[in-house]
Design brief:
The complex is a heterodimer of chains A (255) and B (317). With 255 residues, chain A is an alpha/beta fold. In chain A, the strands form 3 sheets. Chain A has a 5-stranded parallel beta sheet. Chain A has a 3-stranded parallel beta sheet with strand order 6-7-8. In chain A, strand 6, helix 4 and strand 7 form a beta-alpha-beta unit. Chain A is globular. Chain B is built from 10 helices and 16 strands. In chain B, strands 5-6-4-11-12-13-10-14 form an 8-stranded mixed beta sheet. Chain B has a 6-stranded mixed beta sheet with strand order 8-2-1-9-16-15, covered by helices on one side. In chain B, strands 3-7 form a two-stranded antiparallel sheet. In chain B, strand 12 and strand 13 form a beta hairpin. In chain B, helix 1 runs parallel beside helix 7 and helix 1 crosses helix 9. The longest helix of chain B has 16 residues. Chain B is globular, with a radius of gyration of 20 Å. Chain B starts with a strand and ends with a helix. Classes of the chains: A alpha/beta (255), B alpha/beta (317). Chains A and B meet through helix 1 and helix 2 of A and helix 5 and strand 10 of B.
């Protein structure tokens, strides 16, 4: 998979918040084989973390995708993105413009506007959006090369709320990398996303808040691979009747 | 004579253990008084190994089990347990918390009301950790410094330590590889209208809160966990989350007087567990993270065993 000119082998992106400790986090990153990890920024971050957390993350070797988590306005998101570029020395930004504090649903109007401003400023924007096709088109027009539709609200672990919507997105944007972001709770959710033809999955809480985050990271990696292989292998169609896998014709009759 | 840099939690606790073993101790402290410059001032003062085990390693329980008796010899320890609750719509958080630890019993609305009459009718279920306790961190620091002074330790205030000491306990100021700051913010409320006698934890996916009674109508609420070295005052975002969680716990806190706001940097290693590290001939006790009062006694005992020469180095570590 290639995103913004960068080749990636792993199709699992991992968030870095809410782990029991940085040691567990680093072990989870290793177990997930993720090549991209997301990092959320707050204003305090710009005042430095000494030799601390960011250095540990950078030492994992994974590429850092800073995000604008918790930003509610275009201006806030743009400022946070600029801060992130300075701190992490990257033009990649996962763009979140939150519309509602309770559901953390994206404000797609602010999102498109912020994506335009940041793209013009040279950022490579990964927008956290809904499965709405027209919003997706506007984001591409604004300069994004990738779309990150939600599976379900952030941190909810509900799995894919609207698989049909994601499938429609795949059909509508056949050549745009689509990464399901948010809502994944279980490995089977990640597999389902990949079976729908998504290019990758981004998740955080499902691993961080699991009883054994490292084992769950490994499970997610395998689930993503299984789903992707399943999609590539082109599954058989569903049928509404049983079809015996061994022929019945010619069986011996014992009358 | 054993010299220590830092009269905070780790320095004073180790001094106590050394004095118990007959050593002479001198502590250098940059601040003007016991614990005045210590991040432990902003701690909750919870002795809550089983609640902490929800998101920590086993050592928090094994090392922390000695803390109750240790502190009871020095300062008042309130062994009233911890009550963990969640708002109705976040009850899944309670289930998750319960699955990740032990040492509790599930309690009903009636049992919650019996434990804390002030919370009657507010929560339908909770977890009660009967074996846990709390203390007042500032009182504990000043009591501990008085005890070690009475035992013969010399504490030199307003004085930076010389380059060469036997034990460095200067927290985040120490240059120890792998040590990182984890910023925490807290507030102290005065609200005599609300009567709560034990530590409460309110689980919420975005704003978990703990509230520790300090007596005399005072309560400490905390604590955020931010990977940052910022020492500025608490942010509005953090405070509004803490305050609204306190309000969700009991609307009576709406009338509370906000007596104090504070922020500090917890020193932590990558596994969030404390360590004894020898560096250039100086022993460091550091990385107490958010488990200072719980783990300082056991770590101080280890440090004392290490510093007194008749004990083998390997055994102490």
């Amino acid at each position: 998979m290639e995103i913004y000119g960068t080749k990636l082998n792993s199709r699992l992106f991992l968030g870095t918040a809410q782990y029991p400790s940085p040691k567990v986090l680093c072990a989870a990153i290793a177990a997930s084989s993720s090549e991209v990890i997301t990092v959320s920024l707050r204003r305090e971050t710009s005042e430095g973390t000494g030799t601390g957390f960011w250095q540990m993350l950078q030492e994992t070797g994974a590429r850092i995708l800073p995000n604008t988590a918790g930003c509610h306005t275009v201006q806030e998101a743009v400022t946070t993105a600029q801060m992130a570029r300075e701190i992490f020395d990257t033009d990649w930004i996962k763009l979140e413009v939150i519309g509602h504090a309770d559901s953390l649903q994206p404000d797609v109007f602010g999102l498109v506007e912020a994506a335009r401003i940041l793209s013009e400023d040279g950022f490579k924007v990964f927008p956290y959006t809904t499965e709405d096709l027209i919003v997706g088109e506007r984001l591409l027009q604004a300069g994004c090369d990738v779309l990150m539709p939600w599976g379900a609200p952030i941190g909810s672990g509900q799995g894919l709320r609207n698989p049909d919507g994601l499938q429609a997105m795949r059909a509508h944007f056949p050549d745009t990398p689509l990464i399901v972001d948010a809502g994944i709770g279980r490995p089977s959710d990640a597999t389902q996303a990949m079976e729908l033809g998504m290019d990758a999955v981004l998740l955080n809480t499902a691993v961080a808040k699991a009883g054994d985050p490292v084992k769950m990271a490994s499970a997610m990696a395998q689930a993503v691979t299984a789903g992707q292989m399943g999609y590539q292998a082109d599954p058989m169609p569903r049928r509404d009747m049983a079809v015996p896998s061994t022929p019945v014709l010619g069986l011996a009759e014992f009358a | 004579m054993i010299t220590i840099a830092g009269a905070g939690l780790a320095g004073l606790a180790t001094a106590y253990e050394l004095l118990q073993r007959g050593a002479k101790v001198r502590i250098f402290e940059q601040g003007p008084g016991p614990g005045k410059a210590s991040v432990a001032r902003f701690a909750g003062g919870m002795l809550a190994p089983w609640c902490e085990y929800e998101s920590a390693e086993e050592e928090v329980v094994t090392l922390g089990s000695r803390a109750f008796e240790w502190w009871a010899k020095i300062t008042p320890v309130h062994r009233r347990g911890t009550l963990v609750m969640a708002p109705a719509r976040d009850r899944a958080e309670l289930t998750r918390f319960a699955k990740r630890t032990h040492g509790y019993r599930a309690v009903s609305a009636e049992e919650i009301a019996a434990l804390e009459p002030g919370l009657e009718g507010r929560f339908t279920q909770g977890l009660f950790f009967a074996g846990e306790a709390h203390l007042d961190p500032r009182r504990a620091l000043s009591d501990l410094s008085r005890v070690v002074t009475d035992l013969g330790a010399e504490i030199v205030y307003n004085t930076p330590a010389p380059n060469r000491v036997d034990l460095n306990c200067t927290g985040i100021k120490a240059a120890v590889p792998g040590l990182r700051p984890v910023r925490g913010e807290m507030a102290i409320l005065h609200c005599p209208e609300v009567e709560i006698s034990r530590t409460l934890r309110l689980l919420h996916p975005r704003m978990p809160l703990y509230l520790v009674p300090r007596g005399d109508g005072h309560f400490m609420i905390g604590g955020t966990m931010i990977e940052s070295a910022s020492t500025r005052a608490p942010s509005l975002r953090s405070l509004s989350e803490l305050m609204s969680a306190a309000f969700a716990l009991h609307p009576g806190f709406g009338e509370a007087e906000v007596v104090e706001l504070g922020a500090g940097l917890r020193p932590a290693f990558a596994d969030n567990l404390p360590q004894l590290v020898e560096q250039e001939g100086v022993l460091h006790l550091n990385g107490l993270y958010r488990h200072g009062f719980l783990l300082a006694p056991a770590m101080a005992q280890r440090a004392a065993r290490y510093l007194l020469p008749e004990i083998a180095l390997e055994e102490a570590l």
